[in-house]
Structure formats: structure tokens, C-alpha cells
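Sanity check. The docking grid for iron/sulfur cluster depends on where the pocket ends up, so I'm generating a full predicted complex first rather than guessing from homology. Inputs follow.
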Amino acid sequence: MLNSKFLNRNVNTIFIMLGNECNLNCKYCLQHPLVEHPISHEINPDIYDFIEEVCTELSDGNKLTLQFFGGEPLLFWDNIKKIVVETKKRKLPVEYSLMTNGRLITQEMVDFFNKHEFWVCVSWDGFNVKQTRGFDAFAPGSKQRKLLLQIEHLGVSAVLSSYAYPINICDAFQMIENAYFPIHNHHLYMNVDEIMDTGGIPQDLTNFDYDRLYKEVALLANEYLEERKNGDVPADKYARNVYIHDRYSRLRWFYTNKENPGEYTNITCCCGNGYTTYNLGLDGTLYPCHNTSEKAGSIYDSYIDYLNNIIKTDTTKERISVCKNCPVVAFCCGGCKLIPKDAREKTYCKLKKTVFMPILEAVQEMGRELVENNGC
Ligand code: SF4
Ligand code: SF4
Ligand code: SF4
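Predicted complex below; grid placement will be based on this.
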């Protein structure tokens, strides 16, 4: 692939926004308050040229991730196949991934995903998933569970809410890992996001026992640091270890990165949506985030016009003075640009602080012990 020498756009991911319809009605769905109208289901062939052009700017050896996204992407199965066939035909350096609720999974889909080395992530909140999503993709004995476990590169992603506390989620993930590992001889990918309250989700989801939440994370963090000291992660604690390890890695990166170690200076959103990640509708519309139907431009715009629109709606810069003094900024990184100020003040920041402070404190405590033991 040709690499441009100067002013590279450096886009590493394109969310392919297939449509915002869904076959579930999850209580906390972020798209419910953010999506105002349906988006196109018709593929404009120019999007292939656009994807190809983005690929020409990849650094040597890097691949562009095409992330198929909905609503529920499996509702748009024919378009997924068409896009894979065309990008394969063009021999583009891309890899595919998809986020699904798993309800529509079939054997044909599993075989297709495995053939094209898809990363498939299933949204699943663990034992109480029926209370948050109304559907359990890993229900014991279900056909969905059997099919999903066959996927070569499988992940699970949960939303932490008052129906799904960290230990509960980790234990549920561990149960899936125990079934998955013997089949594939590699681990399940795992992710946990804190619930995003844009201001309109049902109160029972954010009605946290903050004390319990803090204590659970503290216990997991201490367990993790002990395992690091001993260099041993028991197989039955794998999910618990991953939960803290992901957050510990963020903390470590924040304090050791070369550009601004230990300093928060972001004026654009940390998730990179609109900047290093494009959100592309099938008709060529570009969006600031894949969870909204508000447009930022199109593939036919000049890059500077597009970027201007993205920056205009990115609220990250307005919060820099608050976020840079926040004790958990290393983990939260200024938060989501779509969360309005009042919702942020009401629940968002409190939740982030409750989840991340115990990890920070456990690491600080370990640092203190190390210094004392070395006699410094
Ligand atoms: S599966 Fe995803 S898109 Fe569908 S309702 Fe649930 S959170 Fe929203
Ligand atoms: S928790 Fe709130 S104040 Fe702290 S970094 Fe995140 S958004 Fe900023
Ligand atoms: S702007 Fe970023 S953090 Fe916010 S919903 Fe979109 S992807 Fe998530």
C-alpha cells in the first residue's frame, strides 16, 4: 500500500453503520436518546473507493478495522456479505469485526465469520441480562450459545449497571471462558463499560449501591496486584484478572506515554470518534459517533469542512479544566463527548470515580510498600 509522507490522517477504524434498527429493546440503549431518524440501508458504491483511499494512508503493515455496527448488525446480513466480498476483491488491508446481541446468529454466519477471521463481540451482561436486555445470548442449552461458542475470535462485552456489579460480571464471563477455552485453546476477549446515563435512562439501572461497587473493585484490584507479585493467574480467576488488567494498563499508559506523561491535555474526545475512527453510513454520510444519527458531513466533503463539523460538536475542550484535575482522569480520559453537562454531574462522573478510585488507591498503596521495603 502507498503511504502518504506528510499530514497522514491516520485513521485506524471505520464503523460501517448498517442501520439503526434493532431486534432488542435494551433498557440502557445509548442509541434510544441519540438516534432521531433511520439511516440509509443502500450501499453507495463510492464508499468502497473511500475505504480504499483510507487504506492508502495506513502505516506499513497496519490494517484498517472495519467494524460492522447497528442497531443490530445481523439484521443487515446481506450487506455485511456484500461489503466483505467487495473489500476482499479489492485486496484491501482490512480486518473485520462486529458487535452483536447474538439473537439472530446462524451456522452460516458462524462459518462466514470464521472463514473471514472476524472478531465478534457479543453484548451480554451476565446473570441478570434478562433484566437489562430481555434476552440471554448464552442461556444454557440455547442454540445461540452453541453457535456463538464456535466462533474463533469471540468476545463478550457487558454494561456495568445496578443489575450487573463487577464481581457478578466477572464470574459470568468466567463461566463463558470455561466453556470457550477448551474448544479454541485461547481465551475469550472480555470488555466491561460503565453504563452511560445520557439523562433519560430508567433510574433502576443507575440506582447503585456505591459502597458495594467501591468494595468490589477494591477487592478485585488487590487480588490482581497480588497475582502480579506472584506472577501467577489461576485459571478460575482469569476474568477477574482481565477486568483490572485493562484498567491498570490505562493507568500505566497515562503515566508512561512519551508525549505527556501524567498529564491530561485532550481537547478532542479520547475515543477518537470522528478523528482516528470514522463512522460511515452506507450512503457515504459521516457521523461524529456510531451511536447517533446526527450527521457531520459526507465522503464528498473537503476534509477540513468535515473536521470543522466534528470539532464544533466535540465538547471535550469545554471540560479540560475540570477533567485535568480529576483523580480518575487517567482511566476516564475526559469521558464521552455526547453526555450532556447535567447528566455528567448527576451520575456519570460519580460512577467513574467509584469504579476507578479503588484501583488507583491499590496501586498507590503497592507503590508505597515497595518504596518502604527498599528503604528509600
Ligand atoms: S442490542 Fe444494542 S442497539 Fe439493540 S437495543 Fe440493545 S443496546 Fe440498543
Ligand atoms: S470522571 Fe468526569 S471529571 Fe473525571 S475525567 Fe471523567 S468526565 Fe472528567
Ligand atoms: S462519542 Fe465515543 S465514548 Fe461517546 S458514545 Fe461515541 S464512541 Fe462512545
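Relevant for the grid: The first strand starts at residue 13 and ends at 17.
Also worth noting: Residues 341-373 form the longest helix (33 residues).
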